[in-house]
Amino acid sequence: MTQTITLIEGDGIGPEITAQVVRVLQALQLPLTFDRQTLGQTALEQTGSLIPETTLQSIRKNHIALKAPCTTPVGQGFRSVNVQLRLAFDLYANIRPARSLEGVKTRYENVDLIIFRENTEDLYIGEERKIDEDTIEAIKRITRPASQRIIQAAFEYAAAHQRKKVTCVHKANILKQSDGLFLRIFREIAAQYPQIEATDLNVDNACMQMVMHPEQFDVMVMPNLYGDILSDLSSGLIGGLGLLPGVNRNEEIAIFEAVHGSAPDIAGKNLANPTALLQSACMMLDHLGYGDAAQRIHKALVSVLCDTPIRTRDLGGTATTTAFTDALIARL
Ligand code: NAI
Ligand code: MG
């Protein structure tokens, strides 16, 4: 049966990397079709809406989307497109695996961690209020149900994938009530998985530990803001934002997307690294039961990186987005 995937080209470098990822997927001749939809700046220009209803309907119908980064116009009072999309479908888990890639030289060799970021609350609920001209407050909301389901998802993943350790990242020494609740729930759930080691770290210490000894981390779970920051940090451990894939999901709907943004500084120049979106597509293939196809892509990627000097500028090379993808497709 042909699977239809909602495809969102996004803004900035989005259309360039999407085109390349689609080329790779088409080269594999899988029974996949794409339902192209718009979101973000492009959608606003074309339809007058940042999040068109047709895009939401398509995702609701297909349950699967592959999404390139989108730009939210700044200073016009718009709420982040990405945050809104995640909230619209209650995609509570943002899962971001950072794994050292053979052929990419970094300071570390054996990074293999996976971040479970709570995706619906914390400081991202967007409740800021003006007290007076010089004073603004932002609300950080942590609830039991939202914390419970993301922490449970992290432990379930660890158990299903023979992972040994789950680390909770928080700032409960200062945010005693909010992060304190998250940490308490973590300990409650950890007790149900005696075979998995459970540890916790304050977020500042976690940053230092990740930079010093990232190999010690396995599954990590944390509230929204820390997850946003630590996932960019973890991309730095494996070679940069051009590599890190991710998914926003719940039990019904999964939107696969790279961790990086629309990179306006390099947009339209054929310079972007398509790997992060491609690895997100590989996560999507795994999810759809095409694990073999995902493996083929991964092998071709590693072959380009190990056997040739062909790489995009972010990885120290001079290849264009298209030339890099050409080399990868030739090795599929
Ligand atoms: P960014 O991730 O777009 O860029 C940060 C740096 O990484 C830039 O120097 C960029 O050139 C580089 N970079 C990112 N992806 C790359 C790739 N594939 N290949 C090579 N270099 C890459 O973050 P920034 O500048 O903070 O945000 C730009 C825009 O993206 C904003 O409008 C932001 O709201 C949006 N954004 C969208 C996201 C999404 O749609 N999921 C996530 C993050 C940001
Ligand atoms: Mg981010």
From TrEMBL:
UniProt keywords, alphabetically: Oxidoreductase
Keyword Oxidoreductase: yes
Pfam families in alphabetical order: Iso_dh
GO molecular function annotations of the record: isocitrate dehydrogenase (NAD+) activity; magnesium ion binding; NAD binding
Protein name from the UniProt record: Isocitrate/isopropylmalate dehydrogenase family protein
Domain Isopropylmalate dehydrogenase-like as annotated: residue spans: 4-328
Protein family per UniProt: Belongs to the isocitrate and isopropylmalate dehydrogenases family.
Superkingdom field: Bacteria
SMART domains linked: Iso_dh (SM01329)
A single BP term in Gene Ontology: isocitrate metabolic process
Signal peptide start-end: none
Organism listed in the record: Holdemania filiformis
